[in-house]
Amino acid sequence: MPSSSTLTASLPRVLLTGFDPFGDTGHSGQPLNPSWLAVKALHGKRIGGHLVVAAQLPTVFQASVDELTRLLQLHKPALVVCVGQAGGRGAISLERIAINVNDARIPDNIGAQPVDTPVVAGGPAAYFSSLPIKAMLQALQAAGVAAEVSQTAGTFVCNHVFYALMHALATRRGFKRTRGGFIHVPYLPEQGAPSMPLEEIVRGLRLAVAAALATPRDIAKGAGAVS
Question: By the 8 A CB rule, do 153 and 95 touch?
């Protein structure tokens, strides 16, 4: 009989990434980023017959993409969900679209601050998430988790990673069947308001991943913005 470690090694992978702390997000001198804390809590878990692998990305424009590229080649995941922090949002935000522009209002963690530059020179203006975001939204709301579809991932490192991910999945050999996208999570209560407890963020991400794995084609559900 195969060992549990052998069975685990044979499972298809779900890659979850979160970011290290950036900017003024600390509390009492202890910087944190809920995106990393949440995905780290799911590392090694099994969801929908897949093994979750969590990894941290630096909040640095080029280095984040370099690390993401390495992780894609290493794990060959069936599903990729990059997660970031969005202060000012009170719900788990399922991002719809990544745009091909960097426009940093603040520097990244090594001081880089690109303004009006492309994420990928010559790349498409935008990519849509290939995650079933409406089915994920429905699963979250049915479980009582505050969630929304977001029409913008910003123009900082989160959007940079989101666009680079979708470009890699669209253009790199071996990833045509891999689905991916981006989720923003709120602050933790100790960071300020609006916020969401870490346990609720972890629960929401687990539900979102399970819904994505169980949904080969997205559902029709109104969740757009009026303005």
Answer: yes
